[in-house]
Amino acid sequence: MLIDQAKCVACGNCIPVCPVGAIYIDPAAGRARVNQDECVECHACYRGMSKEHLWPPMVRAVRRVAKAFRFRFDPEPDICPTDALTPQELAWPRIVRRAFSDPLVPHESTGIHGRGTAEVKTNDVTGRVKEGEAGFVIEFGRPGVGARFRDIQKMTTALAALGVEFERQNPVTSLMSDAARGAIREDVLDEKVLSAIVEVKVGLEQVPRILRAVEEVARQVDTVVAVGVSTRCAGDGSERLTAVLAAEGVPAYRGKTNLGLGRMAAVGGGR
Amino acid sequence: MTNTLHRWSEHYAPGRRAEAPPVTDDFIVFAMAARGLNDEGDAEKYRTFARLAFAHNPVNVGDGSRGGMYRPSPALTPGAHWRRDDRPDPEVLLRGIEGHTVLAAVFRTREDMEGFVRDLKAADLGISINISAPMDAAAACCRAAGLTRHSVEYSLGFQGRLDRLPDRAVLEISTMCGHGMVSGNLVKKLIDWVKEGRRTPAQATGYLARFCTCGVFNPTRAEALFEKARTSGA
């Protein structure tokens, strides 16, 4: 994201709007700027702020007069008065930032918006996670911290060493140069994204081992890690995962429940 | 789109305090077709989902590829600083639905969610329907609707650099947009503004709801949390 320096009036409204704090006022220029290394190209500022299209010299003049008299502005905090936020053309590898950060951009690898993962949300149709299996979703960077792929690779290599199966229909997997080792393409390792999800599937008996590995790697990364785990229920709606988690001292109060109302088109039946 | 899995609250946080009250005003139902397996003609199914949702008092409804009920304005006049019409228009949402997306509806009460799920069962859309809520509430909803759950996914909370997370009052509001479009810094600013009497909880909530692009932000809960923050010293 860029800020048009000819339009910006340094009102500062966009500064707290940025989920990763990448926008600041440059005191020398008297304009807002974007720290390009920190910006994750999520477009929250550009798309989320409402816009006026005021004439910048007029707005600056009004602000100067008010400032001279120590009047406090109290404008609406989600408006860019001069429409100064300007998306930029993104090339590889920076384009990866937007793919993983802007929820309105579908991931090329899966065609899914948001974080690009289906997990067990369509398990009644895909049958991706079966009874006796656990699907882990290990998410980096949320909420509002962001993550670099170099940190994410620490987790993928640790998990690969345990012999896990990475979900193929997953945006992080699609960036791997060697899935057997959990290695991610070298040219994206320093790219920062708002969040990215690693998905692996293991047998229920492996759950404690994966939990410990995730906990260990989470201590080594410079971001937050949010963990989710799923399973397929038995015909009566019961499942064994909760007991496994309870034995590990892991609470599982909140989550998602797939109601089993989906079915394959025309041929029927994911159950 | 794991955008609703990790909605933070004191009650459901690991190591929760015994006195932290459970969340009783935040229930999400969403619909998602499987790419290439049952997504043909899904736009009309999503429209049906949204129409059925509107009959059960949703506090938000969102199209994951177009936006929620609350959206920013591309061309305001300066008068907006004094008077701003930000009432949601369900028709805009319905007209915008086209092709592959995810539709979500947020409810304030479990009864509203249960009524909606019963309608969805009767409508038999054939696409996947999920509840994102406390697991006991989801299980009760399934029983009430005569459904047997197919799969479950549990949030196990946050690990790693927890020192980089904002405080609990901010976290409880900002994680209601799991995609991270509701900035923690903006929530903090608005909590301060509410405390200073510069904005009401409802106004503060309105600003934030417009940033959530898939409409899973719960304005009713956010307003209550702003009110709580105003008086609790958070």
Task: Give a nutshell description of this structure.
The complex is a heterodimer of chains A (271) and B (234). Chain A is an alpha+beta fold and 271 residues long.
Name the descriptors.
heterodimer; A: alpha+beta; Alpha-Beta Plaits; 9 helices; 15 strands; elongated; B: alpha+beta; 5-stranded antiparallel beta sheet; 8 helices; 15% strand
Q: Which bin fits the share of residues in helices of chain A?
A: 25-40%
Number of strands of chain A: 15
Largest interface: A-B, 98 and 99 residues
The termini of chain B sit apart by 30 Å
Shape of chain A: elongated
Please tell me how large the radius of gyration of chain A is. 23 Å
Number of helices of chain B: 8
Structural class of chain B: alpha+beta
In what order do the strands lie side by side in the largest sheet of chain B? 3-2-4-1-5
What fraction strand of chain A? 15-25%
The major sheet of chain A is characterized as: 4 strands, antiparallel
Q: What's the number of helices of chain A?
A: 9
- Count of domain modules of chain A: 2
Q: What would CATH call the class of the largest domain in chain A?
A: Alpha Beta
The low-confidence runs of chain B, each spanning 5 or more residues with pLDDT under 50, are none
Number of domains of chain B: 1
The profile of the biggest β sheet of chain B is: 5 strands, antiparallel
Strand order of the largest sheet of chain A: 9-13-7-14
